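Quick one, T. Sequence first:
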Amino acid sequence: MNRPDKLKIVLIEPSEIVTAGFKSIVERSHEFEITNTFPNPEYYNHTHAKADIIVINPAVINYNERFDIRSFFSNDGDNITIVALIYTGYEESVMRLYDGSINIYDSGSRILQKLHSAVEDARQNPKNELNELSTRERDILIAVAKGKTNKEIADDFNISVYTVISHRRNISRKLGINSISGLTVYAIMNKLIDMSDFN
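Structure tokens:
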């Protein structure tokens, strides 16, 4: 990297032993430095900490409250590389929210390599809300999540069934979710629909 300054990392991890180990690895690097460590994301906003990279344990996020990981970090979320520090497997739809991931079983050199890759990926492929779904795609996602058939959706939006199928294909490709139940969960977690819509 052609940066004169080290990239600043904020680590959000409740385990002291994992925090100590991660800090020890990062301190060996000439390109990264840990500026703050917090047990949960609320501390980040309360202290007005600034970072280039946030490394966070996904277990500290309440995905029922907010599914968009970047919304936890005030106005900085769109400009920060966010890396998951994982102990176990997570659903693909959750991991897609992050710019990269580090497993606690990765070697020190692999961790530094993954941090580099995540920063580059975030620069080349910035993430934004709902993975760039268009307004029409969001409307169709809502209709699908509410259990409407392709014909019903086509009638509601005055479009052909083939156009609905095309939109659904694009939605599945963008979100990486192929099942109706998965799309429904995604819509609920992103507050596109409410549980009361099913009553």
